[in-house]
């Protein structure tokens, strides 16, 4: 049996913008941009992991909205799955509390101005379509 561990990435959308986060560690990923998120823990749903990770990493109260089609292989046993997400009413603003040293809200026009992790490019392309269409869910 092959063990697979899902890493959930959040395409957090707000006002037609997508939140990108610059990793501060480990050294081989530091400086590259990703969708905030992390590993789904045993017995946890990806949606619950997304809420937990965004609370820990960004200090926000968010909710998963819909799965972005596709799945991207990371270093085995990890696979990246992405959900769009939104801030709940009254959520604090996102801050780089953990794992990241900079956050940037990107519009459709500035989406490719940051150096995304290669394994995130496919997911970001999918999200770009929603941004271009002006759809937030
Ligand atoms: N969070 C996140 N991780 C990604 C993305 N793309 C990508 O290759 N990864 C990799 C980096 C890490 O090796 C792994 C996720 O690890 P993480 O460090 O974010 O997860 P975590 O918060 O659960 O970390 P930990 O409990 O192991 O400290 O997936 C992405 O878009 N978001």
Automatic annotation (TrEMBL):
The EC number(s) this enzyme carries: 3.6.1.55
Q: Which domain of life is it from?
A: Bacteria
**What Pfam families does the annotation carry?**
NUDIX
Instruction: Supply one GO molecular-function term.
Output: metal ion binding
Which segments constitute the Nudix hydrolase domain? 3-133
Any one Gene Ontology BP term: DNA replication
Cofactor(s) named in the record: Mg(2+)
Region forming the signal peptide: none
- What is this enzyme's catalytic activity, as reactions? 8-oxo-dGTP + H2O = 8-oxo-dGMP + diphosphate + H(+)
Q: Which keywords are on file for this protein?
A: DNA damage, DNA repair, DNA replication, Hydrolase, Magnesium, Metal-binding, Mutator protein
> Which InterPro entries does the entry mention?
MutT-like, Nudix_hydrolase, NUDIX_hydrolase-like_dom_sf, NUDIX_hydrolase_CS, NUDIX_hydrolase_dom
State the top-level EC class.
hydrolase
- Family statement drawn from the similarity comment of this UniProt entry: Belongs to the Nudix hydrolase family.
Question: Sorted alphabetically, which PANTHER family does this protein's record hold?
Answer: 8-OXO-DGTP DIPHOSPHATASE, NUDIX HYDROLASE FAMILY PROTEIN
Protein name as annotated = 8-oxo-dGTP diphosphatase
What is the organism lineage in this UniProt record?
Bacteria, Bacillati, Actinomycetota, Actinomycetes, Kitasatosporales
């Amino acid at each position: 049996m092959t063990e697979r561990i899902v890493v959930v990435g959040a395409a957090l959308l707000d006002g037609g913008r997508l939140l990108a986060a610059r990793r501060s560690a480990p050294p081989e990923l530091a400086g590259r941009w990703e969708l905030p998120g992390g590993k789904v823990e045993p017995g946890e749903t990806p949606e619950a992991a997304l809420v937990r990770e965004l609370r820990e990493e960004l200090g926000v109260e968010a909710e998963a909205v819909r799965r972005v089609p596709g799945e991207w292989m990371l270093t085995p046993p990890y696979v990246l799955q992405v959900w769009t997400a939104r801030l709940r009413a009254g959520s604090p603003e996102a801050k780089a509390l953990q794992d990241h040293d900079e956050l940037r809200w990107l519009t459709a026009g500035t989406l490719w101005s940051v150096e995304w992790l290669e394994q995130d490019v496919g997911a970001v392309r999918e999200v770009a379509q929603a941004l271009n269409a002006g759809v937030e869910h």
